[in-house]
Amino acid sequence: MHDREGGFILLDFLISMPMLVLLIGTVGVLSIFVARMASSLYADMELRQEVQSAFVRVIGDASEAYSVQRSVTGGGVSFRKRSLGRGDSQTTYFVSEKDRATKLVYGNAREPLTGDSYLAGVTITEFSWREVAPFLQEFRLTGKSRMTGHSYTLSTRVYGLRQEGRGSP
């Protein structure tokens, strides 16, 4: 009687082992797929966050400025502001190639506003501004994730800026 049970146990083992291996393999593949999707999702979130925070800073300075001009550095933009009791000040933003990434830089190359994210590896593909109408400037910032290849663009218009060399609004 015990000899027959040994055969059933062996048969049960031979049938269940491939199923167990298949189940473990499926769980492993699904885990890898979920991890890749999660890292891609986090990279896209980092891309949006980095572009948004840099753009908010640029537009904040633009809304406080009275004039705008092209900066000589990296095709960027310079804003002139009036400070109470201190006279005029100038704020500059430009695009710079640093650490194999194109970054938006504030003031000098030691203060990049973009490109320091861990997952996304944000590189700036466009930073531009143009005069749409007198005293109306359009600003545009596009970042691209080196991990996912996705792009994110923000654009807005600011009223009240004059291009250097024009009259005041």
Summarize the structure.
The protein has one domain. Helix content is 37%, strand content 37%. The protein has one helix at 2-64; strands at 67-70, 77-83, 87-98, 101-106, 122-133, 136-145, 151-159, 162-163.
Distance between the termini: 103 Å
Summed up, the helix count is: 1
Strand content: 35-45%
Quickly count the domains. 1
Largest sheet: 5 strands, mixed
What assembly state would you assign to the polypeptide chains in this entry? single chain
Could you explain the architecture of this structure?
- A 5-stranded mixed β-sheet has the order 4-3-2-1-8, covered by helices on one side. A 3-stranded antiparallel β-sheet has the order 5-6-7, with helices on one face.
- The chain has one domain.
- The longest helix has 63 residues, at 2-64.
- It is rod-shaped and about 95 Å long.
- The chain has 1 helix and 8 strands.
- With 169 residues, it is of the alpha+beta class.
- A hairpin with a 6-residue loop joins strand 1 and strand 2 (77-83).
